[in-house]
Amino acid sequence: MRGLTLALTIALFASAARADNWPGWRGPNSNGVVPAGEYPTSWSDTDHVVWKVKLDGRGASTPAVWGDQIFITLGNDGRNRLQCIGRDGKVQWNAEVGEDKGGKNGKASGSNPSCVTDGEFVFAYFKSGDLAAFDLKGKQQWQKNVQEMYGDNTLWWDLGTSPVLTQDHVVITVMQTGPSFLAAFDKATGELAWKQDRDLGAPLEAAQSYTTPIVANVGGEERIYVVGADHVTAHSAATGKELWRVGGLNPTQHKYFRSISSPTLIDGLLIAPYARGGSVTAVRLGGQGDVTQSHVAWTTTKAGADVPTPTGKDGRVYFCRDGGEVVSLDTKSGDVLHRTPLEKNRAKYSASPVLVGDNLYVTREDGKTFVLDTTDKLKVVGANDIGGEQTVASPIFVDGQILLRTYDHLYCIGKAGQ
Prior knowledge:
CATH superfamily: YVTN repeat-like/Quinoprotein amine dehydrogenase
Strand content: 35-45%
Oligomer: single chain
Distance between the termini: 49 Å
Shape: globular
Structural class: mainly beta
CATH topology: Methylamine Dehydrogenase, Chain H
Mean pLDDT: 94
Radius of gyration: 20 Å
Low-confidence stretches: 1-18
Helix content: under 10%
């Protein structure tokens, strides 16, 4: 089979969530695409701000939203915390989840991973190795420490991968120097369902990855797709078994090609940024074993990003490069369609772009968000400054409102009258 059939049958698991929820880092379809709705394209730190909440701890994670609740992780007074804020901007509850390990990188924290929810439980994961589940009223269901179970974190920098959900499990990846693996835990009980080793022989720091997997339903079977350690691997969501792999993402065996930008699925292709933003590989899904020679659709060194994860749809993939250039590629060929350099600034880009209708939103590390029209050669149609607050979390879009998390505040941005 195969590419065409697979392309027609792909449906991301998260798509079952309501369109007005944002259950995890990359939204209801795990691809940074907003299903529908009209959203502001201009605002400031005062204009169109429905409310803002002062955050009492440090965190780099993107919030999750279910119904009238917003879930956000942060570190406070030496403890990891999961906080629930209502859609009215009022704090509903706080919960502690182990010891806050802080961040090594100046723009990171011990709360880099974004939480995820299925509408029954919310799951939070931290640099300390603590993984916990809570109901939506804040009652803890279970807590595990993955590092106590399987060994210390050996990443050179700060844990970045976020947990993902399958039909039955919450899944985390550990990709580091030394033993690397995927592990799935029962959502309701926290019992280990399976653990799959993922040791692929990448050299030195190239073995380390901060990426988040993708969960998709292909032909009625759930799959988990992982990028890191110089490979793309596909796994059964039921058992964790590796189904196929693509290598060659690091053909020169560069020792320092750790990966941060995560993959995305567009038009039946897995788009894998790599090489610190130096390359992009498009992989056709399916096959068995090593499919490097048969399933690589194209590669390019003319686009890519080191930190921001791409988005796209309808034959286009969009990258926000770390230095402030937005690039669109044709998903069929990998050819560059348009390039738009954004205004020069010392601040870089860590937040991932979000596609809302025909508008692409990209947020700089000083909190300034640019809006580009994808129908008009990536023309900038909005440039929105909130006063220079440090921002690495990606914006989220629900019910016509934008939630923007900085290190100091959570902003709710809406149209006049909201």
